[in-house]
Amino acid sequence: MLLAHVRSAFTLSNGTYGSPRMVYELRYNGLTIGRRRVARLMRENGLRARQKRRFKRTTDSLHAFPIAPNLLDQDFAAAMPNQKVSVI
Fold first, then answer.
1. Number of domains present in the structure of the chain
2. Is the distance from CB of 18 to CB of 51 less than 8 angstroms?
3. Domain around 20
4. Least confident of 4-8, 18-22, 62-66
5. Residue 18 resides in a domain
6. Is residue 19 part of a domain?
7. Is residue 77 part of a domain?
8. Of 25, 30, 31, 28, which is closest to residue 2 (Cα–Cα)?
9. How many CB atoms lie within 10 A of CB 33?
C-alpha cells in the first residue's frame, strides 16, 4: 500500500521528489512513514529524483561586438515628458 502512495506522489512531482520531500508529502496526506523506509522503497523500485540542472551563464560580457551608445549619459532631466533631446 505504501509503495502505491510513494509511486503516485513521485509521479505527481514529475520525478523531482527525493525521500525527504516525499516523506513530507506523504505525512501531509495523512500517512505515517519514516524517511529511511521511503528511501528504501524508492531505491528498490528504481525511483530516483532528477537533480536540478547546473546554472549556465549565457551572457558574454567580453565580446568584441559594438555596444549601444549611452544617449542619456546619466542626465535624466527633460523639458517635457517623453521628450529628451539627443546629445549625439
1. 1
2. no
3. 2-44
4. 62-66
5. yes
6. yes
7. no
8. 31
9. 15
Q: Rounded to two decimals, what is the model's pTM?
A: 0.57
Residue 86 placed within a domain: no
How high is the pLDDT of residue 24? Answer: 93
Is residue 64 within 8 A of residue 47, CB to CB? The reply is no
Helix (H, G, I), strand (E, B) or coil at 80: strand
Instruction: Read off the C-alpha cell for 47.
Output: 525511483
Amino acid, single-letter form, for residue 68: A
Percent of the chain with pLDDT over 70: 95
Rg of the Cα trace of the chain? 27
Q: What are phi and psi of 79, to 5 degrees?
A: -70, -40
Four-point Cα dihedral 34, 35, 39, 40, nearest 10: -30
The C-alpha cell of 86 is what? Answer: 539627443
